[in-house]
Amino acid sequence: MIDAKPTDFIQTEIEIAKYAKALAHPARIAILNLLKSRNACICGDIVDELPLAQSTVSQHLKELKSVGLIKGDIEGTKVCYCIDDQKWERVQALWNDFFKQFNSGKMKTDVQLKEIVKQKYSEIALQEKEVNQSSCCGAGGCSTEVYNIMTDDYTDLLGYNPDADLGLGCGLPTQYAKIQKGNTVIDLGSGAGNDCFIAREEVGETGKVIGIDFTTAMVEKARINAKKLGFTNVQFIQGDIEEMPVESNIADVVVSNCVLNLVPNKEGVIKEIYRVLKPGGHFSISDVVLIGELPENLQKDAEMYAGCVAGAIQKEEYLGFISNNGFTNVSVQKEKSIIIPDDILGKYLDNAELEAFKNGNTGIFSVTVYAEKPVIL
Ligand SMILES: C[S@@+](CC[C@H](N)C(=O)[O-])C[C@H]1O[C@@H](n2cnc3c(N)ncnc32)[C@H](O)[C@@H]1O
After folding, report:
1. Fewer Cβ atoms within 10 A, N terminus or C terminus of the chain?
2. How far is the CA of 213 from the centre of ligand 1 (A)?
3. Ligand 1 atom 13: the closest Cα is on which residue?
4. What is the number of the ligand 1 atom nearest to the C-alpha of 167?
5. CA-to-CA distance for 242 and 138, rounded, in angstroms?
6. pLDDT exceeds cutoff 50 at 143
7. pTM, entire model
């Protein structure tokens, strides 16, 4: 059974509940209706219009203002209240999405999504590599799958270990990571250790590599690989990268390959990266992003989610999370379009939807993003 904490819910669920709570009184609905009907700010005379005492009205106004549903600006000796139209657009979009998903019966919490991801990658870790590559979704049952569509060729990279390469990446983050001898490198969602062993080659004997992954079978596989290679400075820790089980300011470099798209709270991970990097440290992350909206069926399907596509967000939003959380010199080092074969798209879209998708402006891209944590904070 999944035991969810309130903070484990999807951001939109938390937001919807926040606004619903703020609206949960008929007096507040009456106040909102009054403000909207005037179509202008009301300074002071709200109490004259409602069958309520001044102190009660003030209390309700305070509640509505605290979540941003109304604005309250001081003008002389009065506070003037108005509807915050921008906020209401957001509330309306949230409710529209909520009902769309609710009616389809496909709404999933962050915890459920993470469980699906863990289960999928556990199956992959426990499969023979050949089975994984020849079967759809590892355990899914067709001939080609999203897991392998975006993989780059690692075989020429120094430190490459075939046992650690499960074909799960969507770029070569170490290529742009400027790793130096003696560095401490953290790899987020390290899988069987593919990028960790490349990073180990670069940090040498004096450096350190830490891989973090929340799938038990992946961590075990990675540890077996490290042991076979005799590395004592490559460590694999089981944990959720939304709350990294490592101290602050310890890493010179953070890398990650095709993982953040699977994480419900991507901004949370960006904040965590900032926390664990030393001042002056940097990251290089390969990931899947979107330009334009994915068709609804693709977006919602959990298996597609585990295969990196449905959990991807808009490129601009992704880059915004990075620059809005203290990072500088944010740059996209590499970008390539990902073509999903028709047999995969056909599992999620009917013919008309498939045609519309292919002829539309929506694109799925693999990007490798670089950014720095400033030296002086
Ligand atoms: C697409 S695979 C990539 C693995 C590896 N980076 C590679 O390129 O071979 C995604 C990995 O991220 C891990 N993962 C997904 N979400 C995670 C989270 N919130 N915390 C830690 N690991 C996560 C999965 O268990 C899986 O091993």
Report:
1. N
2. 6
3. 189
4. 9
5. 25
6. no
7. 0.72
